[in-house]
Amino acid sequence: MVVPVYNEEAGLDALVARIVSASQAIFADRFELILVNDGSTDESWSAICRQADRDPRIVAIDLSRNHGHQLALTAGLHHVRGDLVFVLDADLQDPPELLGPMLDQLRQGYDVVYGQRIKRNGETAFKRGSASLFYRMLGGMVDTHIPRDTGDFRLITRRVVDQLNAMPERYRFIRGLVSFVGFNQIAFPYERDARFAGETNYPLSKMIALAADAVTSFSVVPLRFASHLGMLFGLAGLVSIMGIVWIWMRGGTVEGWASLAALILIMGSVQLLVLGVFGEYLGRMYMESKRRPLFIVAEVRRRASKYETPRGIPTPPAADEPRENIHVTG
Ligand code: UDP
Ligand code: MG
Residue 94: is it exposed, middle or buried by C-beta count within 10 angstroms (0-12/13-18/19+)? Predict the structure, then answer.
């Protein structure tokens, strides 16, 4: 189980209790819960550490600062070792108890079972409306089929996680990347609960940034706006020239200044807008070209457990050895 955590101290204990009981019912001791602290400014990290010190199946990862939801999740996906990975939010909007039914679905031959919201409780009409508009717009611009009304709530297999971890990009829209990976994927309709505690960490500005990441990482359609606009304005120019000639031939004149000024302003703004879109892509190319690490880990706390990991990953130390404090960069 992988959970990114940002300022969720109020709900953390309830979250861990529900995930652990849901996982235990199915996997007994053969699971690990990775809690990634994304530079929280409240007491989330100490709450996470308390949990990790108490239960050897819980792994606490502290990022060096706030990296944002998608990169925190990426850090978790790099550390998780299971053959199946269950991704959920820390605010209990995605019920952990759905693990069982989603697993049944997965066993019918799927690699990805993604939660699809049929109902969102406790979210404003504006959030619902903007999310729905966004998915419809995205669908029109992108070749990869990115399902509507999904978040990062998913159950995925190891080979999908490996593919995701092999993608080096910084501007990550993980639900899109999962679609991009392919294999057999199926929607799992569910009702999204209201937040258990605290407030959303996705204000409008972060939603717009995520939408921009989604569009630019999956589509170059906006780059074509320039040529489309060029053709449109060219056509408009042609029509108005014909109109002017027609009026001139009939001995009239066209009054100029105000319409000319308006035209210049419109043309100027369209050109700047198009430049801005180009700049958005160029800027992302520049940032990607630096190839900086996607996330920086300050600390990993994992109490020793007897849990044997498959796939050749070294087993953690025995129970009486002190817990490890690893400092690595991702
Ligand atoms: N989150 C994070 N880093 C951030 C913002 C959010 O790790 O900078 C986590 C947060 O703790 C939660 C998940 O991302 O587990 C989704 O955030 P939130 O619930 O605020 O978003 P919403 O559900 O309102 O879209
Ligand atoms: Mg939430």
Answer: buried
